[in-house]
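During the second year of the project, the team shifted from modelling isolated chains to modelling whole assemblies. The rationale, set out in the original proposal, was that interfaces cannot be judged from single-chain predictions alone. As a representative example for this report, we include one of the complexes processed in the last quarter. Its constituent sequences, exactly as entered into the pipeline, are reproduced here:
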Amino acid sequence: MAEKKAVLTGVHFMSGDIACAEGAIAAGCRFFAGYPITPATEIAEHIAARMPKVGGIYIQMEDEIASIAAVIGASYAGLKAMTATSGPGFSLMQENIGLAVMTEAPCVIVDVMRGGPSTGQPTLPGQQDVMQAKWGSHGDYEIIALSPSSVQEMFDLTVEAFNLAEMYRVPTLLMADEVVAHMWEKVVIPPAEEIKIVNRKKPNAPPGNYAPFMPDDDLVPPMACFGEGYRFHATGLTHDEHGYPRTQDSDVQMRLVKRLCDKIRKNADKIVRVEEVMIDDAEVVVVAYGIVARAALSAVKKAREQGIKAGLVRLITLWPFPEKHVARAAEKTKAIIVPEMNCGQMVREVERAAKTTPAYHLPKLGEEPHTPLEILEAIRRHS
Amino acid sequence: MMEAVEHPLLKYLRAAMIPHIWCSGCGNGIILNAFVHALDELQIDLNKLVVVSGIGCIGRAAGYINADSFHTTHGRPIAFATGVKLAKPELEVVVISGDGDLFAIGGNHFIHAARRNIGIKVICANNFNYGMTGGQVGPTTPLEALTTTTPYGNIEHPFNLVHLAAASGATYVARWTTLHVRMLTASIKKLLQRKGFSFIEVVSPCPEIYGRHNKMRTGLEMMEWFREASVIANFSDPAKAEITPEKIVVGEFVDIEKPTYEQLLYEKMAKLMKEESE
Amino acid sequence: MRIEIRFAGFGGQGIIKSGIITAMAACIYGGKHAVQTQSYGPESRGGACRSEVIISEVEIDFPKVTEPDILVLMSQHAYNEYAETVKKGGMIILDPDMIPNEREIEGVRIFRVPATRMAEELGRRIVANVVMLGAFAAITGIVDKEALKESIKANVPKGTEELNLKAFEIGYEYGRKLVEG
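Output from the structure prediction step:
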């Protein structure tokens, strides 16, 4: 249950960025470190105003590298912690996202995607960082990334991102886009007691017998925090269950990296969320996420009105990729259409899961997300 | 048979992590020794101590100390420590790292943490080069020094770390060499007792990697240099404390008080929370 | 029914705020579904600026305007850019002082509201967008007048509520007279 006085229970009209900030506070986030960047700045601004009133910390760091490092520090000191950025800052954070993966620091990173590469289009939407979300830091790892399609989901999925981060001790990404972040819509914030809150597992072992990276059956190790008397060591180096560096030991590397991947892979069925609309008899299925999924939903409805059997799989979880759902939809359909605000990223995963069913990418770059008409035309072409 | 007696300072070390990785003649052991003595003399509660380090030879020190410790990515220990200190201000948060980690890749974090007066304590082992990667030029390498990436002599002007720290707003600034063990230990005790951003530069020998390119093949030869060149000048102008082959000005340079970031932060927070509850 | 409204002008005219006030009025105070989106350049002041609102009886899937039913235009640039995008049978509400050059547009009703001048007469040019909202309410009848007033109160800086409501009423009266001829 969420902390009552921190939750703005009620019906609101707010922007996606503000809803994200409120979601974080409702989820129990009490530390935010960030650096201004369009179109994510309003998250920081709202947190800066709200956080001290609920006993939380806002600090504007000198850059995004420092922001994510401070977030990991605060997480190890026992707070739920978050940062928010856009593409350029997300790139700067990548090395330390790897550190959070390696040291299993629960934290949330929001990337409000704009057009790239480089400085690109600061005020316009993009979906060009979704592969970076999975592969951006060096080395092998699995991560969790969610994709909100509405202002309500900017609230709901931020709460969920914290819950997943705490449950699996993994940095969890909220991959939003400029439209969802700046859009204003109705948001219903439930009573605190109805908001499900997950907190990291604490060790049962007394100090002295605690091995900080010894996993339970779910492959997730209980987490002690600084100052609790456990006096443990953590490092970005390859380490054993005690947290001690074992950089020359191939067994330790295998065991560690495999577990870091497996704790997400083996729990994928529990983590993955999609929304399926009219796919049972669909001859053409659109797979979309973020703001584009709303254009896709409109297009699918219009297609049905015209007698075309179309359906939609909306990816709420981008990573781990909802492979089974896409595979199931692909089995029964003639064609899959993947509209994305990029030159073809998640479509590769869709193709992999869809096997022999063809997946057609519908790119859109520049000013606006796809219109429903553009997606409808693609549905017609492939029906 | 003689009874085995445990070293009285052993409790400050994480025995499982030892033997350490440092070369013979390296000054890092002296720094660790001084630090552990300071902990002991002040009876610091190890349960309330967090030691953070970055990448480099001295970076391993965090793991050797039997407190909560974290070994970050290269250059980021101060940013990480900032998060720890703000989240739990009651903890003593000490960063022990090297000149390359703190002042090249991590230089931006150093000046901003000092400017904000985050109450973390920073000890820098300055060995004039990147030892762990085999001796490349760094931000404190003296002019004309030979390193593996300045084979014809260094043409970069080095940082004067105590001047940089003072100018950035640090409330306690000192420099010692590993020859000045007692002064260093006393200085670390002061560092641990100060509230604001505090900094000690420890000029440290790296005979295996740096010294051998620069006519100081052993630790002893490097210590000879420290002995001949160092001049104790407490509270002298840090701007004039550049390290040259002839002169290493050591001593305390700054010892002032001003409100820390976390103090101001928690005061504001308490005020706002009180207003909210009314 | 889905109604698409586009407000456009330049940064500093309160264009984005107009959209938020309208959408919030329809949604929170009017019981309908509404969403506001925006588009703006790097300039805080003076750059082209656009704010879009969808109002619907049912849940809104696509939140962007594709063919606006109503255009509210407050700059020549906005007029040149968007005047011809309006749906056949739709309407344009514009500030004629800000838009000296109009073209012939067929099948569209045009309402001219000198909102900037009226705001200046109130002593605050900055409330021109709220004068326009008053006229918009009277001319279109899409959003309830009282709901809009509530939304204005919720969205303007504290201490300026009275001024803004006055601006709204002046605009509303002007719009009402235009409709009634």
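The domain at 273-382 of chain A is CATH 3.40.50.920 (Rossmann fold). Chain A has two domains: 4-194, 273-382.
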